[in-house]
Amino acid sequence: MPAPDAVLGLERVVKGYQGLRPLRVASLILGPGERISIGGVDAPGAEVLVNLVTGASVPDEGEVWTLGRRTTDIADADEWLGWLDHFGIVSERGILLEAATLQQNLAMPFTLEIDPVPPDVAGRVLELARECGLPEALLTVPAAELPPEARLRAHFARAVALSPRLLIVEHPTGKVAEPARAALAADVARVCEARSLPALIITNDERFAQAVAPKNVILDGATGQLKPLKKKWLGW
C-alpha cells in the first residue's frame, strides 16, 4: 500500500491485453501535486494503463491504489461512474461534438444547454479557454474545423474544467505539429502548477516529457521496472 497521501500507487501490476506481452508496472507512486511522465508505453498499452488507474479495469496481478482507495474495492458500475468524476482525462480517444462550436464543446462540463450557451456559462468557458491557451477567436469554430493542437487543448480544457483530483494525459502530441509542442507543454505544466493538480502524462515524446513534468521515467516492458529518463538537451 502506498503512503496515505499518495494520489496514485501501482504495485507489482500485471494486466494482459491484446499485445505481445502483458502490461507490467513494478512500482509507480505519484504524490500530491506531482507531475510524472512515463514513456515506453504504446497506444494500446496506454489505454490499458488509463483504465487501470481509473478503475475501469482491474489488474490480473498486483494492486492499484488511486486517491487513497484500492480500485478493486469499487463495488459496481454506478459507483464507478461517480468515481470517474475525480479524473480529468486528456486523450485523442475523447469525443468532441464535431458539428458543435468549440464554445459549445467547452460548455458541456458545466451544462447540457449549449444551443445557445447561457451567458453565465459562456463567461466560464471564456476563462477556461484563456487558461488553457485557446484563442477567443476559435470559440465560434466548429470542432471539426479545429487544427490538431486546438483539438488537444480542447480535450485538456474539458479535462480540467471541473477541478479533477488527478489529470491523466495520454499520448498528447501524436497529431500536434512539432513547433506547437513547446507551448502546449508549457501551458499544461502552468495549469497543473497553478491548480496544484497531480498529473500522469503517458508520452514517448521525450522533448514534451521533459518540458511538462519534473520527473520522467521509461517503462521496461519486459520487467515492469521504471527507469529514469536520461536528461539531455532536447531543444525545440
Describe this structure in words.
This protein is α/β, with parallel strands linked by helices and 236 residues long. It has a domain at 8-94 and 164-228: Rossmann fold (3-Layer(aba) Sandwich). 31% of the residues lie in helices and 21% in strands. The protein is built from seven helices and ten strands. The strands form two sheets. Strands 6-7-8-3-9-10 form a six-stranded mixed β-sheet, with helices on both faces. It has a four-stranded antiparallel β-sheet with strand order 2-1-4-5, with helices on one face. A hairpin with a 6-residue loop joins strand 9 (215-219) and strand 10 (226-228). Helix 6 runs parallel beside helix 7. It is globular. It starts with 7 loop residues before the first strand and ends in an 8-residue tail after the last strand.
